[in-house]
Design the sequence.
């Protein structure tokens, strides 16, 4: 079922027209030719990043942002966007009252773009964009997480989220669902779809699976 969803989303992404501004943002996301040369040749360690962990940048649409916020409606506390791109989700989360509102992004060009947007919106002091490896970030202080990442990355991220997030945390995935998890809510259609997951429910499901596996092994 998850494979069908992923294929459907990928097909829609290919058909979707980005327009001039979208192309400009994608250019910023790729870092232009100069950044590509710097990242691939001069930046130590970049070439050692496994291919399955390299996530291409595509800006979230207004509808995608709206779907994420709909799933987070009525919640409060800290918000973190993993792979925050140009920071639009973090900015909207801040507008909705989430604090702290933090984005984690490795691309320095996108970090500059995100900080510019925050400054332009008058919220520069209310949001934070950090150039940190999300695999090394301690997520235990966040009750609300958003991720717009590739399926291969989501599979690896599951274990970290289960281990670190507080019991009342909610995770929202955009574009692609977590491959091995059952969402508690879904908002939107097609490429704009978002999936919500309660960490408490996921842990109970994992415990149940572990018990079943132990019984089966006997």
Sequence:
């Amino acid at each position: 079922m998850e494979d069908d969803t992923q294929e459907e989303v990928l097909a829609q992404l290919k058909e979707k027209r980005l327009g001039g501004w979208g192309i400009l943002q994608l250019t910023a996301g790729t870092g232009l030719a100069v950044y590509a040369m710097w990242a691939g040749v001069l930046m130590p360690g970049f070439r050692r990043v496994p291919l399955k962990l390299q996530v291409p940048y595509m800006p979230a649409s207004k509808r995608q942002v709206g779907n994420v916020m709909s799933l987070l409606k009525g919640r409060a506390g800290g918000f973190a966007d993993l792979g925050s791109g140009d920071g639009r989700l973090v900015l909207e989360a801040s507008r909705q009252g989430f604090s702290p509102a933090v984005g984690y992004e490795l691309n320095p060009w996108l970090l500059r773009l995100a900080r510019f947007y925050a400054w332009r919106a008058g919220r520069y002091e209310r949001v934070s964009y950090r150039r940190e490896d999300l695999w090394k970030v301690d997520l235990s202080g966040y009750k609300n997480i958003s991720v717009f990442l590739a399926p291969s990355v989501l599979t690896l991220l599951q274990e970290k989220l289960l281990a670190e997030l507080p019991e009342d945390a909610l995770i929202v995935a955009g574009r692609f669902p977590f491959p091995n998890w059952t969402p508690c809510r879904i908002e939107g259609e097609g490429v704009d779809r978002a999936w919500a997951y309660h960490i408490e429910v996921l842990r109970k499901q994992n415990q149940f699976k572990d018990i079943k596996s132990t019984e089966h092994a006997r």
Q: What stands out?
A: The radius of gyration is 18 Å. The longest helix spans residues 199-217. The CA atoms of residues 185 and 196 lie 5 Å apart.
